[in-house]
Write a structure and sequence with these properties.
mainly beta; two-stranded antiparallel sheet; two-stranded antiparallel ribbon; 2 helices
Length: about 140
Amino acid sequence: MASLVNVTASAGPSPANSGAQNPAEKQYGLMGGTWMRPARTWIVKTESNVRREKKKLPDPPCVICKGTGKVKCTKCAGRGRTNFTELAMLPKGEWPKWCWDCSGSGRSYCQRCFGTGEKRGIIGFHVPEEEMTGSEANGSQN
């Protein structure tokens, strides 16, 4: 079932609510009058009884990230901030310095699977035995 909700927001006090107002503003709408503060309306669509689908993990999954594609950020140890990473809460008066690597989320892409979640094969190249000739087979290059 979907329902629509109208939300009205005003950028400032409305002329009806303001007690004393300059007569020039009332008459001509000058100096930030009513024409400068239009009421903004957003239509928000909400739905109920919607089931979330679970993300299917790849087969076989990556051994580092277990198929999610994300791991803890190495710079901030998964906290999202770079100051006082060993503490759960910041000391009084301290503001967080957000991690630049993970943008404050505490998660970064897996380095093994590059965020795909799939197990990668061996990196490199393979030269088949039948393509090697006699001089290359025994190791001489001349």
